[in-house]
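Course assignment 3, question 2. Fill in each field.
Student: A.L.
Task: Predict the tertiary structure for the chain below.
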Amino acid sequence: MNSDKKQLILVIGLIILSACRTPVQERAEVVEDETEHAFIETNKYIRERHREHIMAFAGRVGWEMTETPTGLWYMIMEKGDGPAVQRGKVVVYAYETRLLNGKICYSATATEPKRIVAGKGNIEAGLEEGLLLLREGSKARFIVPPHLAHGNFGDMDQIPGSSVLLIEVHVIEVKR
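Answer field:
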């Protein structure tokens, strides 16, 4: 074997051997990400402003509402006596979604209701959470903050970004 080939084999062998060594583990320093912290604080601030806006609105119109830990506000106007809405069950319901200024964005009537499978996430998170509080025959009102609805960008159609929604619901039927 000539000397050039021997040198090439030796170099390749050294590269392979050095690649197989266990790397030295360096201690990673924990550095607080200032940008992440700023975003978290900003989101907390915005969420609290929406909460105050919702409380003021409910107070002005005289509604006694309950707030869930996620930030959904609800008021059950009629307690149904049918089966409870549960994950995996088909829920047939009529609804009307409005902005707090009264503008109607979307609706479905009792003659042309909406059907969903509860828990599948095909609707606003706040509406789904609210439906899971109800039974067949229930009528309820939900005030849904943006983080449980369409967020900062809206739905790119009827609902502007950062909108608080008022949703009135009538659960018509709950079935398997």
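Instructor remarks: The longest strand covers residues 165-175. The radius of gyration is 28 Å.
Grade: pending
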